Amino acid sequence: MKIFEAIEEIDKLKPNLYGPNEKIKWLSRLDMKVQMEQIDTHEQEEPREAFKGYTDDDMDKQLLVGEPWDEMYIHWLSAQIDFNNREFENFNASNAMFESVYSSFRNAYNQSHMPIGTKKTYY
Fold this sequence. Notes:
The protein has one domain. The longest helix is centred in the last third of the chain and has 25 residues. 57% of the residues lie in helices and 0% in strands. The chain is an all-alpha fold. The relative contact order is 0.17.
């Protein structure tokens, strides 16, 4: 999913007054979390450059997490909108959906990538 796709989808599903720059900032925070908690803690086939966040010039960039877990970006944006609107009951529901998908992504990622510093030892 690209940044502009996530923003378009959340704006259709949950009309709001927050602009693209705010949503880009929220998406940057989430992908920084993904980078630090998952990607940087596991071995990679190719070295990745440090994630520095997105800007309004990055609307066509691909977000870090792909299908089938990319729906987490929509739940994340929904939760951020609810939180900033002080709609805490809605926030709890949106955040629970986000956490469910993010947890599923983390489990799949952990199963398919070797943690850094872990080597197989045969006796």
